[in-house]
Specification:
The protein is mainly β. The strands form 2 sheets. It has an 8-stranded mixed beta sheet with strand order 3-2-1-10-4-5-8-9, covered by helices on one side.
Amino acid sequence: MGIRHRIIPLAAALALTGGLAATEAAPALAAHPAPGQTAQAAAAGGTYLSFDKNQSNPSNSTLYLMKSVPNARDKVLAKYRAGSGNGGRNGKNECASMQGWLPNGNYRVLAHTKHHNGGARGINGYAIQVQDKVCRNGRTKRTELFVHSEMKPNGTQGARQPGRDNPYRWDGTNDYYSLGCIKLTPAHIKNLFSKAAHYGWPKRLKVVN
C-alpha cells in the first residue's frame, strides 16, 4: 500500500491486505512487440522496474527504470529515491500487511494512469499498479500495490497545511513512508512516466534487498 491511510474503492469498502485499491479504470499496458519484431526479441530488449530496498533506511531505497540488453549488462535508464513500508517496528517485515515493505520477487505491471482518484484517504494522480504478491510465509497476500506519490487526482499539489500532513501534497521526506507501496516524489513519478513513455512501458517490477 502506498500512503498512510486507506482508500475508498469503486463501489464498496474493500478489505486491504497490503495495498490500496484502484478506483478507476487505468489504461492497460502495451503487450505487443513492434511490427516485424518477435515476442522473444521484444521481451529481451524491453524495459522493467527494479526496486532496491535499503536495509538501513527503507525510506531511502532506490527505484530504477531498466532496459534489458541481450548478452550484456542491463542498462539503467533512470533512478529515483523511493520508499516502501511505514518505518515502524514492522516496516521491514514483508508479511506485515499495511505496515511492511514489498516482498522480494518479480511482479507483473498491470496498468498505469495519470488520474487516479482515491479521495483523501487513497492514491491520487500518477499511479502504476502491480500484481498481488504472497509473502515469504506462503500465506499472507499483499494486494492492490502501486508505485505512486502524494498529489491531487489531476497531478497537482494541494495547499500546504501547517502542522498537518496533507495527503494531496508532498510535504517532505516523511512522505516516503507508506503502507507497503513504492512512493516517489511528484517530480520523480512524473519523470518516470515521461521516461517510460519514451523508452516503452515496463511490463514487470523486480524487488530485491
